[in-house]
Amino acid sequence: MQEEQRTFIAVKPDGVKRGLVGEIIKRFENRGFKLIALKMIDVTPEMAEKHYAEHKGKPFYERLIRYIQSGPIVAMVWKGYDVIAGTRQIMGATGPLDAQVGTIRADFALVKEYNIVHGSDCVESAEREINIYFDEKEIFDEYENMAEIVIEDLG
Ligand code: IDP
Ligand code: MG
């Protein structure tokens, strides 16, 4: 059963530095997902710690917190049917060698630590992460995109 959801996506600092913002947005737009919020920001220490709270204590945690603050990110909210699983499918598994060829991480990431893009993994983390990075008034929930028009037309 398909479900309309929202998810938090970020082009991480390595993705921004490598000029992959357009490539990443294009892949999600091509699928028919709807971009409803976007901004470039520096992640603060507080945002980084909140975002990655679940990984606190893991061996890669300190490096992850430094990495996400190592340059601006492009923070986004995307909406669509099964957008959480769909964007994670397009991103691929965490490490480039585990990710399927054709996914963003297999095609562009060098190593597991620096893997270009973030996407929420469930409805609860999506809402939590959206609230870390966005005010509700920055989110443009209302306009229709082609995918919605097609779904409406086909009933
Ligand atoms: P995800 O981004 O695919 O959801 P998570 O397990 O939530 O992966 O990990 C968050 C981020 O932490 C990853 O995207 C990656 O940058 C980093 N990371 C995860 N696992 C490892 C690891 O085993 N070694 C080094 N970095 C890792
Ligand atoms: Mg994760």
List the helices and strands and how they pair.
Elements: E1 4-11, H1 13-17, H2 21-31, E2 34-41, H3 45-51, H4 61-68, E3 73-81, H5 83-91, H6 104-108, E4 117-119, H7 123-133, H8 146-153
Antiparallel strand pairs: 1-3, 1-4, 2-3
Description:
The chain is α+β, with helices and mostly antiparallel strands and 155 residues long. The chain has a single domain, classed as Alpha-Beta Plaits (2-Layer Sandwich). The chain is built from eight helices and four strands; from the N terminus they run E-H-H-E-H-H-E-H-H-E-H-H. A four-stranded antiparallel β-sheet has the order 2-3-1-4. The chain is globular and about 50 Å long. The two termini are 14 Å apart. Residues 55, 60, 64, 94, 112-113, 115, 118, 121 line the site of inosine-5'-diphosphate.
